[in-house]
Amino acid sequence: MTTAEQNTTFDVLVIGAGPVGENVADRVVQGGLTAAIVERELVGGECSYWACMPTKALLRDAAALRAARALPAARRAVTGDLDAAAVLARRDRFASDWNDSGQVDWLDNAGISLIRGHGRITDTLTVTVTRDDDTTTVLRARQAVVIATGSSAQLPPIRGLDDAAPWTSREAAATQTIPDRLAVIGGGVVGSEMATAFSALGSQVTLISQARLLPAVEAFAGDLVAEGLRNAGVDLHLGVDATEVRRDGDRTVRLSLSDGQEIDADEVLVATGRTPNTEDLGLDQLGLAAGSWLSVDDALAVLGDDDQPVAPGAVGRAWLYAAGDVNRRAMLTHHGKYQARALGDAIAARAHGKEPDLDTWGRHAVTADDRAVTQVIFTDPEVAVVGLSAEGAAVAGFATRIVDHDLGAVAGAALHADGYRGRARMIIDQDRNVLIGFTAVGPDVAELLHAATIAITGEVPLDRLWHAVPAYPTINEIWLRLLETDGRDH
């Protein structure tokens, strides 16, 4: 059953059918309850069609080509440049040609009902869905309503920007043409990844950022990525703002910068932040501001201004939850899915009269959002991060040791690519002698990340990590070198 006209009451209603909403509903159904998802766009959400999957497909061919060219014999076997049309065609396959029928079939097979339309909370445990033809259906939940509507690109207040028809991450991910000249406003993850992708696909890319590149990660990682972009021909303007954008005629976009320079481009991509998809959800009925990020407690229940769950008195318990980007805990798809699994299982547990396990690292806790957020940035070189940075650890009040090592000095890295350049850093909590942060930057460092994640979430003492012997010769030998460096330094 993919529509719910025959049945308007479910145990759980989920607004938003992205990966987070799908996972909440799936865990609820696996827990013996009924669930329905309300979705106004494509089932599968941002990640499937305009973010994770299509953007990484845009990046992957170029990464493989760079890897081949980093080895002398392979470099001689490679002729020509990237086939941009073939890259876009492969991207289209990963985006399912923006057709969600496969995802709809998955919902149907999982026993999850789908209601197409725009959902609004109109009462306690009640969601009214408005379809494109303005007909409505009122849905009711027995246990919970979950908001999993994600976020959208936020346009900064730059003069003339709205009239210049800028790209956001959506247009960049779905484009069918490669512009000759692309200007990117924003030096965060999206801006840096798309500058990497489009420069490899043949665009002359200019990137403008008011801050350093990748300001949320260790500075050395941003510096190496900036070097990689410059080597790829990207023109970086760091520490400046775009003050005005205007489109001359049908094609040329002219950007004025705060340092007096002007940049011409065929398209301008804005990647300066996100805004929550919470407009017109009926939040005002609950005393919450429309369009706001949603504050949640450790159980992911939505909180009001008094830091108490919203309107619990009507049913005697929390009933409204928020998972994924909208709660701003960790705005990454994999962390949203992590929240969703914990939340779906906790809702099912409560429905069966059991108390959820919300203790630190408990079955239904989302402790990793505070202590072990993981992220890979698919630039050249890659950046892999888990836990705290040196600055973040200091702000949090930890007494730390910081241990750095040159990744290029590791035998496995030298074998991996000629001229391998990279760096790794451990952040150690001195009081407990455990890892609380890890950053690596270099070609293919993504594969180092899960070992660090396990060390942090498992709170493995460094004395025990000495016995986790890395295979030789692999890039994972960096773990031994970091431990040796730490042992020499204190």
TrEMBL record:
<dbReference type="InterPro" id="IPR016156">
    <property type="entry name" value="FAD/NAD-linked_Rdtase_dimer_sf"/>
</dbReference>
<feature type="domain" description="FAD/NAD(P)-binding">
    <location>
        <begin position="10"/>
        <end position="339"/>
    </location>
</feature>
<feature type="binding site">
    <location>
        <position position="119"/>
    </location>
    <ligand>
        <name>FAD</name>
    </ligand>
</feature>
<keyword id="KW-0520">NAD</keyword>
<feature type="disulfide bond" description="Redox-active">
    <location>
        <begin position="47"/>
        <end position="52"/>
    </location>
</feature>
<dbReference type="GO" id="GO:0006103">
    <property type="term" value="P:2-oxoglutarate metabolic process"/>
</dbReference>
<comment type="similarity">
    <text>Belongs to the class-I pyridine nucleotide-disulfide oxidoreductase family.</text>
</comment>
<feature type="binding site">
    <location>
        <begin position="149"/>
        <end position="151"/>
    </location>
    <ligand>
        <name>FAD</name>
    </ligand>
</feature>
<dbReference type="InterPro" id="IPR023753">
    <property type="entry name" value="FAD/NAD-binding_dom"/>
</dbReference>
<dbReference type="InterPro" id="IPR001100">
    <property type="entry name" value="Pyr_nuc-diS_OxRdtase"/>
</dbReference>
<dbReference type="InterPro" id="IPR050151">
    <property type="entry name" value="Class-I_Pyr_Nuc-Dis_Oxidored"/>
</dbReference>
<feature type="binding site">
    <location>
        <position position="325"/>
    </location>
    <ligand>
        <name>FAD</name>
    </ligand>
</feature>
<keyword id="KW-0274">FAD</keyword>
<dbReference type="InterPro" id="IPR036188">
    <property type="entry name" value="FAD/NAD-bd_sf"/>
</dbReference>
<dbReference type="GO" id="GO:0004148">
    <property type="term" value="F:dihydrolipoyl dehydrogenase (NADH) activity"/>
</dbReference>
<feature type="binding site">
    <location>
        <begin position="331"/>
        <end position="334"/>
    </location>
    <ligand>
        <name>FAD</name>
    </ligand>
</feature>
<feature type="binding site">
    <location>
        <begin position="186"/>
        <end position="193"/>
    </location>
    <ligand>
        <name>NAD(+)</name>
    </ligand>
</feature>
<dbReference type="Pfam" id="PF02852">
    <property type="entry name" value="Pyr_redox_dim"/>
</dbReference>
<dbReference type="Pfam" id="PF07992">
    <property type="entry name" value="Pyr_redox_2"/>
</dbReference>
<dbReference type="InterPro" id="IPR004099">
    <property type="entry name" value="Pyr_nucl-diS_OxRdtase_dimer"/>
</dbReference>
<protein>
    <submittedName>
        <fullName>Dihydrolipoamide dehydrogenase</fullName>
    </submittedName>
</protein>
<keyword id="KW-0285">Flavoprotein</keyword>
<feature type="domain" description="Pyridine nucleotide-disulphide oxidoreductase dimerisation">
    <location>
        <begin position="374"/>
        <end position="479"/>
    </location>
</feature>
<feature type="binding site">
    <location>
        <position position="273"/>
    </location>
    <ligand>
        <name>NAD(+)</name>
    </ligand>
</feature>
<keyword id="KW-0547">Nucleotide-binding</keyword>
<dbReference type="GO" id="GO:0050660">
    <property type="term" value="F:flavin adenine dinucleotide binding"/>
</dbReference>
<feature type="binding site">
    <location>
        <position position="56"/>
    </location>
    <ligand>
        <name>FAD</name>
    </ligand>
</feature>
